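Build the 3D complex.
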Amino acid sequence: MAKLKINGKLVDIDVDGSTPLLWVLREQLGLTGTKYSCGIGLCGACAVHINGEAVRSCLVPVSSLNASQEVVTIEGLSADNSHPLQQAWKELDVPQCGYCQPGMIMTAAALLNTHPNPSDADIDANVTNICRCGTFNRVRRGIHLAAQMNTKSSSKRGGA
Amino acid sequence: MMKKERINVSRREFLISSTSIGVGIGAGFSLGLFLPLSSRAAIAAETWDIRASTGVPEVNAWVVIEPDDTVIIRIARSEMGQGTLTGLAQMVAEELECDWSKVTTEYPTPGENLARDKVWRSFSTGGSQGIRGSHDYVRKGGAVARHMLIEAAAEKWKVPMAECQVANSVITHMPSGRTTTYGKVAAAAAELFPPEQVELKDPKNWVLIGKSVKRLDTDDKLNGKQVFGADLQLSGMLNAAIKACPVFGGTLKSFEATKVRKMPGVRAVVAVEDNAVAVVADTWWQAKTALDALPVIWDQGPNARMSSASIDQMLDEGLTSKDKVFVGNQNGDVKKALKGAVKTVEATYAYPYQNHATMEPMNATARWTKNRCEVWCPTQNGEAALQAAAEAAGLPITKCDVYKIHLGGGFGRRGAFHDFVTQAVAIAKQMPGIPIKLLWSREEDMTHGHYHPVTKCKLVGGLDDQGNLTGLHVRISGQSILASVRPQWLQNGVDMITFQGLLPDADHAISYTVPNLLVEHAMRNPPVPPGFWRGVNINQNAIYMECFLDELAHAAGKDPLAFRRKLMANHPKSLAVLNAVAKQAGWGKPAAKGVHRGLAVVKTFASYVAACAEVSVNDKGKLKIHRIVAATDPGHAVNPQQIEAQVEGSFVFGLSALLYGECTVRDGAIEQTNFHNYPSMLITEMPRVEVIVMPSGGFWGGIGEPAIAVAAPAVLNAIFAATGKRIRQFPLKNTDLRSA
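Done.
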């Protein structure tokens, strides 16, 4: 039995400790926004945040987690598609098939946590997710647009 | 008035309200086809609901309008990222004259299509056909519904229809100024007979077609709500993981179920057809864990010694053989022309097997009882999925149905092949009444694909003393997709699709007039299953033709653009897209230091596309693709911003293939198992893409595939300009790009 904190809620999980977080999210908690694609940490479709950092949940055994760690999935990013990345993605019509997009957005959101105004090089270094439809150029524009939205809204609030 | 009281009853019997679609049927129309209400309720209680509509009768097959003016447009083709869902809805809405902000969509099922005499026509979503293959009848569907809605309003007001006009779902009686909305008259409209003839708008009057509206399917893709096949959850559902014999043509000999039967969650270990074994468990992770621990013995069958080298030999033989050689395009006397040439150029290219590698691995969910079989799956062709389900179920097709789910990528893998459906039903059949979700692992997906076929191509061209092309002999040797997948489409044994982009005319015509031309295919079919892979055969044929033309231009001492133009006098639309990219890229003007350019142009899927790539190669041989300018003329452009997205995406697909795409064969099996040995390009490798959408009107061309083909040859020709190296084997990861 493991106790985890997912999207701000404490949950009890009865599962073999070696089970990857990805499958706990998808099969125990019904949070299917986090996707399975490669299972070996290469594609990024399963990216979630653990304490604000993007982590590939297919490689994280649930036994390595405890309730003090904040796990955030795509379902917990915002209640109403209001995160700047979600708004930017909508504005630019970024997704095609959409399967990689939760991982893409969570990866980008973690990048914005550490780089509020990322350069193209920052994006190249941090967004290593695979997208077979080929949304990369709109992903890049979306990240820049979200960064701008963040800057605008924080200046409206009188700055950080 | 067109109301038909007398036959209204019989019409009502054959009208299917949108509630009764998928839920069983009222009024003496029980085909046993639709999901019974109880099952429907069970499903609706899940996260899964297949219907947007709440139960009002449809106006016609394409259009349902709710009392609150919500417009539900039915879409038969599948959405897999390519934007067809939105484009088709735009076309219906254009003629319907409805309020676009209130448009939503739903999929009818292939079972309903069968029961209604194929009222939605084809469900097949491949060959870049989504828009171009249905533009006329979906627009007609919208126009017919509009007519019926106006007629219903006119009848209500007791005024002539001709005095009524409509815009944005609001009908106005012009003389009196009275208004009503579609939602208010939809129920009455549903009682009317459709007009026999409707006139479609002149393209110059289109408002929505041609407009870059936003996609209709984005919101749920931003927050995890979009349910893909792999995400489906039904009550009482169990999960299956599967392993098929890794060797093509091999079979399952035995497995030791007792070794894993007691592992956590395991419910069953079952043989699937004659070549696979599956573990069924409470969760997929449990099923996969047990499957990995399951001892299995395979009978490797007749192909156990097959390797990339043995396949190579087959293809090499075909490059010069006279056996099983088919002609795809011929004019003049190429033999004579080459003999009389002042200079001849010869080169041999080779293109590898490639996997579709959709981000969402293959999957299907099936529930089987002796009376009914239902399948939920991402598919590019619901009708083919239904056929596969019925065959595997051993039930009449009328006792089966398929519920389509958006695809996490298709690229051709989920259209002609429903092996995953067959397997899911085969498992479900062994556990009657229980929904079984079968999900392939990435490893299973990589090793049991239907691969981009392997071909080689030997080209010989002749030049006269002025450097003009006088003859061209193109000999393709290799695998036919049709021979394996659609043998009934072979024409006297010839696979015409092999000649894509090299044919004399029509949708996949060669872009040049070559005085003496011979294009042949020596059909050589290794026992690796081939499939339609986004772009199909244009991807390699465009490399063969466009890179070799570059070689010829170089040998003739001519500029590659000028050399092409001279052959394109009879191909004005191809020339127009080529000129457009050359102009925008600045062809003929110096590029930035170290940056070099390459060109490519093709006609395929009835569209004209061209690209100019800018690349640099550093002294360590590292390639950087800086920019690609692309032009496309698809005739009519329904949603330009989505065309741009498709062109950009096509370049990711085409460049991933060029840089990394290779499946090799050893001991009868594919060696690549995951993205570590079958990489796909990343954002850091993505060039800037400038898309010129230049619809010239008068025809309908495809969008999802054509642009893939110009990415690789444009980049390869630019690499030659940068390094002096002609690369004729792919992918590039196997080649040292340092300057010659």
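The two ends of chain B are 80 Å apart (CA to CA).
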